[in-house]
Amino acid sequence: MAKTKVKNEPQLVLEALRVGEIYANKRKVGEFSATDSAKDKLRFIYRLLVHDKLIQPLAKGQEDEPNMKHKLALWMSRQLPEDHPLLK
After folding, report:
1. Are 24 and 31 in contact (CB under 8 A)?
2. Which end of the chain, N or C, is less surrounded by CB atoms within 10 Å?
3. Are 6 and 76 in contact (CB under 8 A)?
4. CATH number for the domain including 70?
5. Within a domain: residue 27?
6. What is the pLDDT of residue 42?
């Protein structure tokens, strides 16, 4: 599976984690603390978005950190308005 290059992927991942945390709080499915690792947040938000059918799950054996980050970056890029600075 060839990954599509995403502009500003690291920044989009950070934004996806921020937005995903708000989403999880609104859904009342979890709250993060300052001591939670970015890796734990990434896994939780990825699984929540898959569970809620907001993103397609990765193929079996592909569920690693780089692929999850890429999925979240793609998801976030679709949520932002076309003229958002992270998409330029």
Report:
1. yes
2. N
3. no
4. 1.20.120.1930
5. yes
6. 95
Cα separation, 73 vs 31, in Å, equals 21
Q: CA triplet 88, 43, 35: central angle to 5 degrees?
A: 95
- 85 occurs within a structural domain: no
- Indicate if the alpha-carbon torsion angle 35, 16, 43, 5 is positive or negative: negative
At residue 72, the pLDDT reads: 96
pLDDT digits (tens, 9 = 90+) for 23-69: 999 998 878 888 888 899 999 999 999 999 999 999 999 999 999 99
In terms of residue numbers, what domain contains 60?
9-78
How many domains would you assign to the chain?
Answer: 1
Look up tokens 């989403």; give the residue. Answer: 23
